[in-house]
Automatic annotation (TrEMBL):
<dbReference type="GO" id="GO:0047711">
    <property type="term" value="F:blasticidin-S deaminase activity"/>
</dbReference>
<keyword id="KW-0378">Hydrolase</keyword>
<protein>
    <submittedName>
        <fullName>Cytidine deaminase family enzyme blasticidin S deaminase</fullName>
        <ecNumber>3.5.4.23</ecNumber>
    </submittedName>
</protein>
Length: 55
C-alpha cells in the first residue's frame, strides 16, 4: 500500500508505516519527514481513530 501511495516529488526523506489489525483491516500512512513524531505512532492513531483496538 505504501508503495502505491508514495509521492516522491522534490522531497528526499519520506517515511511510511502500516499496521495490520486482527480483523484484517490495514491502515497505512506516508509523510514527508519534517517533524519529530514517529510515523508508527501516527499510523496507530489513525487505526484507533477508526475504532480499531486489536492489533
Amino acid at each position: 500500500m505504501i508503495k502505491s501511495n508514495i509521492d516522491l516529488g522534490a522531497y528526499n526523506h519520506i517515511v511510511g508505516a502500516a499496521v495490520w489489525c486482527m480483523n484484517g483491516n490495514m491502515y497505512d500512512v506516508s509523510v514527508y519527514s519534517n517533524h519529530e513524531t514517529c510515523i508508527e505512532i501516527i499510523v496507530l492513531g489513525i487505526a484507533i481513530s477508526h475504532g480499531e483496538r486489536d492489533f
